[in-house]
Write a structure and sequence with these properties.
Helix content of chain B: 25-40%
Number of strands of chain A: 0
Radius of gyration of chain B: 22 Å
Strand content of chain B: 15-25%
CATH superfamily of the domain at 2-25 and 116-281 in chain B: NADH-ubiquinone oxidoreductase 51kDa subunit
Number of strands of chain B: 17
Largest interface: A-B, 52 and 78 residues
Number of helices of chain B: 15
Oligomer: heterodimer
Structural class of chain B: alpha/beta
Number of helices of chain A: 15
Distance between the termini of chain A: 60 Å
Strand order of the largest sheet of chain B: 1-14-13-17-15-16
CATH topology of the domain at 2-25 and 116-281 in chain B: Rossmann fold
Strand content of chain A: under 5%
CATH architecture of the domain at 2-25 and 116-281 in chain B: 3-Layer(aba) Sandwich
Chain lengths: 326, 446
Amino acid sequence: METVETVAANPVTFLTSTPHVHTKLSAQKAMWLVVASLLPPLVMGVVYFGLFQLVVVAAALAGAVITEATIKYFRKQKITVLDGSAVITGLLLGLILPPNFNPVFAFIGSVVAIGFGKEVFGGLGYNIFNPALVGRAFLQAAYPVAMTTWHKPAMAVDAVTSATPLSQFKFEAVASKGGIDLSSLFFGNVGGSIGETSAIAIIVGLVFLVAVKVLNWRVPLAMIAGMLVFSGIFWLVDPTKFAPPLHHLFMGGFMFGAVYMASDWVTSPVTNKGIWIYGFAISLIVVMIRLFGGLPEGVMYAILIMNGFVPLINRYTKPVIFGAEK
Amino acid sequence: MLNTFRLKGSFKGGVHPSEFKELSKDIPFERLPYPKTVYIPLSQHAGKEAKPVITKGSVVKKGELLAESEGFISAPVHSPVTGTVTKISKTAHLSGTPKTVIEISVGESTDTSFMPPLNPQRATKEELLTRIKEAGIVGMGGAAFPMFVKLSPPPGKKIEKLIINAAECEPYLTRDYRLMLEYTDQLIGGIEILMKVTGVECVIGIEDNKPEAVKAIAAKLGSRSDISIKVLPVKYPQGAEKMLIYAVTGKKVPPGKLPVDVGVVMQNVGTAISVYKAVVEGQPQIECWVSVTGGGISSPRNLIVPIGTPVADILAYCGGLKPDAVKVVAGGPMMGNNLYDYTAPVMKATSGLLALTGSETTVDGTIACLRCGKCVEVCPVNLMPTRISQFSKLQRFEDAESAGILVCMECGCCAYECPANIPLVQWIRLGKKEVIRLKQQERKTA
């Protein structure tokens, strides 16, 4: 039994401000949960497009991690690659590259993603644009041919070859020729980037991320709802010209963008109201680019554009203080 | 319209920390033996510190007045023991800043000097109110606001409803729960006195993780309709004054306003029982009920403690700290003060002492804000904690003020949820202090 004197003489001195308890979900843990959630799309990419995709993704991953470590080293800052954020950027970039992409280009893309997408702004938490998308936008400009060369899925028997469903809708008018089988879009047995063709794999990741409370479900929900509404309107106007809404949902990088890109904490709004605006606006821009732009796909640009609007959205969706409502 | 709000029964935001109430919820209250010395702070309440009426060497009896109320917002302080005043000096205080205390060496005698008991049925409203004032009763929910002031609405304001705060939404704490089970009659007696003073009906708000307490009170209430129970969903900070008023009445207390502005007076369970004791037994507020709990205490207890008892005496009585304890907190884990000096005495509003282990309380290092928006989502008063704390950090105090920093009640939901482990409440607290200081300065120069 301790005496009053011994207790008083031996205070424990871990002193902090309130609160004294904390949720178990730290940023670092959240990052690694995102990494885990990227495994289903990666596995499906390998299944459909072959083992070489692991080399592409690994190159992007290495580019991201090495770039971050190098920059931190020269800026004499703590090397933070273990926080998982560079790993995510590398993985994300790798998964949105075409199958069999030149690994050297993938590496360069990640250097740009981390260097110009994240570290120039001050590192994690300070970047305005999604780093992986900055890397992809750079590659799109630097290697336009490589970025639009689509290998057909290895398992495909009767599926599309060397063209993505989106370009088929845009340039081959498949809408008037019976369209594309929705189930192959859903499972991913179509042309497209390594990790983005299989909607089912992405949905598995989505459910996981929502369950562990890393992902604000409003981001994908707003985007999906927006996509169904906006693409649905055009489809109702002319079903022989425009793809049906569910096709738009599962084609190209939309699901991947909704679950893994637009939902990035740092580059999305902090208010839930803002999230709805942001999500709907991304979908509207995607539909506009897909249907009326020069490119078949617009998810990357749509998200990057809306990333730029985030500070403005935050400002105008400031919640009304409790009790101050009119 | 109001009814739809009432059905919701809860506010937007909030968090669900692990409760850990099972550590102490089934342990009945026991009385802590008198310590050798008690240290009675003159400041145990919101407002001005009380003015001593005794001097060094005075012999005082249990219940005797030690210091009288000074100004309108203040409360008198009485002796919890019979003994001799040995010193009046500054010493450790639960707030962290040393404050003046009356040191009393506890004597052998068990003489008491209580006020004459009153019959609550026969006493007038004024007599009851005077008794509450003279017994030095302050709110035991945390802010320690003198109860007399709350019960005296300013001209033009009318009290329409009495709410008893039995939410006990802070994790770990089981004081109010045990009080509801063990002091059910006194609680209802105290509520009846408060109803007589205010002339309104009463609602008791209890979180639905305390069904036994609801049952115990409901059994005593029978079919009476002037006191009702509102069972609330478990969510922190359901027991915050504004949140509970909203849950019970559907009314929102505007920023900078008081509950009385929406016609509500709120009192805590312990406070109501103290009122009963002051009126029926003539005992001033000289005791507090304290949950001593947490993973770092050898044997968790619920104790009846004379005010002024040093924390060290209480911790020692509970077997002392376990070797893995890293932090001792006075109050709940969300809003309680971290203690570094266990000679600090407990006070009227002390509700708990927590000893927390590393796994219960430590967090990873702080990183930059990731703008995940979780703090915005959980803030019960709809602030943007990350923005406000940023303003505070950048010393942009005017911006902090217009962003609503003074509306923050420091409930801690934001910092609890923050994955970047930013000490948001700490920054906000610092900013608040500065905003208030600048405002006072402005007033002086104007």
